[in-house]
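Morning F.,

Quick status update on the modeling queue. The single chain you submitted on Monday has been processed. Sequence for confirmation:
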Amino acid sequence: MPPLALERDPQRQHRVSLLVRYLMIPCNACLILLATATLGLAVLLLLNGYQPPSPCIGVQCLFGAVCAVKNGEAECVCQHACPRVYSPVCGSDGVTYGSACELESAACVLGREILVAHRGPCGQWRARGSCWGRVSRSPW
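Structure tokens below.
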């Protein structure tokens, strides 16, 4: 590498040479030090892969809903994907559901508690009582 113009002047050569050769820090370390000095903790956290805590921490969703982050905010959503198995249950609301999963899905969507009154469709006589009502139609 040819000497810098300032290094050619014998009177300044010693000072410039020290500045250029001994105070240089490898580029990456220099940039990290400079950024840390200017931006402080934020840069260190970014360099270490810091992620802020999820907005869902501490959120309690009701009726089978789960917390999901949408647009940076916590939101309770229903995510039931029920298998196509017909195993009817009678809900405490008097509705026959195709399965216990469908009952739980309906409770989530409606935002209210629906319990399984008994296995089998509503309106059938059971030894322990009866459950009269309408039949829920499966979306598929």
